Amino acid sequence: MSYVLVINSGSSSIKFQIVDPSAGATDTPLVSGLVEKIGEFRGGLTIKHNGEKHEHVLTIPNHTAGFKRAFAELDRLGCGPTQLDINAVGHRIVHGGTIFSEPVLLDETVVSTLRELIPLAPLHNPANIDGIEVARRLLPNLPHVGVFDTAYFSDLPDSAAVYAIEKSLREEYHIRRYGFHGTSHEFIAGELHKQFDQPAEEINHITLHLGNGASASAVRGGKPIDTSMGMTPLEGLVMGTRCGSIDPGIIFHLYREVGLSIDGIDKLLNKRSGMKGLAGSNDFRDIHQMIKDGSQDAQLALDVYVTQLRRILGSYMIQLGRVDAIAFTAGVGENDPVLRRLALADLENFGVKLDDSRNESVGEGVQLISTDDSPTRVYVVPTNEELAIAQKVDRLVG
Question: Which domains does the chain have, with CATH numbers?
Answer without folding.
Answer: 3-148 (3.30.420.40), 199-385 (3.30.420.40)
